[in-house]
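Reviewer comment 2.1 asked that we show a complete input and output for one of the modelled complexes. We chose the flavin-adenine dinucleotide case, as it is the one discussed in the main text.
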Amino acid sequence: MQLPHVVIIGGGFAGVATARGLADKPVRVTIIDKHNFHTFLPLLYQVATGILSVGEIAPQTRLILRKQKNAQVLLGDVTDIDLTANTVTSEVLGRTTVMPFDSLIVAAGAQQSYFGHDEFAAFAPGMKTLADALTIRRRVFGAFEMAESAGHAAQRARWLTFALVGAGPTGVELAGQIRELATRTLRAEFRHIEPGEARVLLFDGGDAPLASFGPVLSAKVARDLRKLGVGQHMGTIVARVDAGGLLARGPDGTVRRHPAGTVLWTAGVQAPALAEAVAGAAGADRDHAGRIKVGKDLTIPGHPEIYVLGDLMSLGGLPGVAEVAMQSGRYAGRRIRRVAAGREPAKPFRYRDLGSPKVGVFLIGAVACTLAIGFVVVFALHGAGLSQDSAQPARYGLELGVGVAFMVVAAVLAGRPPKPHSGESRWSTAAREGGLFAAFLAGLALYLPSPVYLSALQVVATAKLDTAAMAVRVIIVVALALITVEVPVTGSPRGGSHR
Ligand SMILES: Cc1cc2nc3c(=O)[nH]c(=O)nc-3n(C[C@H](O)[C@H](O)[C@H](O)COP(=O)(O)OP(=O)(O)OC[C@H]3O[C@@H](n4cnc5c(N)ncnc54)[C@H](O)[C@@H]3O)c2cc1C
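Response of the prediction step:
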């Protein structure tokens, strides 16, 4: 009997995580990708600015899975799926392949959106693929070369102007890196131009860079960009892009031309064309960016055999970041394993956000709570006459009270993070984040240099019973950390979409 066949469209973060989750399991796995390499997208900036080479961020997918005997990797651009025959159609160099599946993973990622102005793409490359990064690299380094040999000051100034459209994470990071390139890397390499004079202009229709990360962080980013010398044109809508630069309408409604030798498009994401084919075949709903809506088991409602993962899935406002993609892949692998083994399907998907401020504060709360519980244990041991130092219990009691108080403050503050664009005012955000920071400092001040804590450590070094108490603390730290980092998918983590 043939083993069930799992076909994975896309060998990105989600696709590879799914395949790995099925290693050594009684299934056959096929990854189909239009590239034969796996791109580590968070390092695209470094390729675009010449810091890393292509090979360093894009290993061959078949190399990654070479030891996984039940997995094969095929090159192909998936164009269609047929849910009557349960097949996937892909094309490579004019050859069409139709492949049957038992379970299908659709993990084709996201692509750049020009908000209906695809004609801008010829003048303003996006930043979504390795090819984009190489194009940007060519244009950025080429612009310095053109400036070096330019005959007129105006031409030189135009070549030394870089305009970026979109002040999200990609625009902000790229703008900063181009300034660093100009002021450090290329500083002494030219004879007729001063690379440090390069102007980097960042355009965005919103009020501030990284607006979705909240006003405090956003204000800090704006300050840092100013220090780096990045010109910020916020509240500005780019109406046209051409070979000479761009036309933009500012906050006061006036339209101005900004000559620039290089324009880069760092705004907007949308689902790839494949999403339409999949949604059409499965009757799935899509969100405003074209991503496919899935249930909490990451399958399309009514199609338990079709999973949509990573950047292409739309679920509870989860952001388009690598961690979501990998966790969704691991979840799908686990669920397919269980179904193949005839067991109950896995529990609903829960995203563990390992990087939000909420989690950070919960973790601090968890550590404080753990210390407090640990002290209760030590206190009880003393009460039972199992430890000799009679001066310790009162101090442990005090420590316990403070620990619980700190934990309550941290949990209350952390439990109500605002949603992006929730209308929370700048001052209440500052007060809340200031409160979080104060709670954090309080935790550090009370626990890390605490003489009581240090003396407890000394006790641990000498007394076996107190070693047991410390072990209890460690176990509880780990358990609480694992519990508290779970963020239900219905609660959108703070920060919104990464791209
Ligand atoms: C410049 C940049 C910087 C980023 N920085 C960060 C960061 O710092 N931290 C973070 O967490 N996230 C970051 N991200 C986001 C993160 O990279 C994505 O969330 C993640 O890659 C999504 O994984 P995925 O598997 O869904 O899609 P991808 O990793 O994009 O993989 C999709 C795969 O599907 C393939 N594919 C697409 N269409 C087809 C088709 N029709 N047929 C066959 N194959 C197809 C593609 O070739 C690709 O290999 C960044 C993204 C970019 C673009």
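The chain has three domains: 5-110+271-349, 118-268, 357-487. We note this here for comparison with the apo prediction described in Section 3.2.
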